[in-house]
Amino acid sequence: MKHLFIIIYVCIINFTYSQKVYTHPIYHTDYPLVANMVSMPDSTLYYLQGSNRWTGEEIKVTKLDKYGNIIWTSILPIIGDKFHEHIYKAIGDNGVIISYLTYINPLPDFDGIQDEVLIHIDSNGVEQWRKKYESAGSTGDLVSIDNYYYLRLDTQYVSNVDNRLINNTPVVYKLNMDGSIHSKNIFIADSYAIVMPLRSMYLIGNNIYISTTKLYDDLDRFIFTEKGYILKIDTQLNLVNHLDIEFIPALRREIITDLFQLNNIDYAVLGNEFLYSYDFTNNSYSLLDTTFSCAYISNTADNGIIKLSKPINDTVIVSKYDYKFQLQWNKKLVADKYEAIEIEQTIDGGYVIQYLKIAGTDSGIAKISKTDCMLNHEYWSDECNSKLGNSNIILYPNPANNILNIECANIILKIEVINSLGEQVKHIETNPYILNNIDISNLVNGIHFLKISTKDGVFFEKFIKY
Question: pTM higher than 0.70 for the full model?
Answer without folding.
Answer: yes
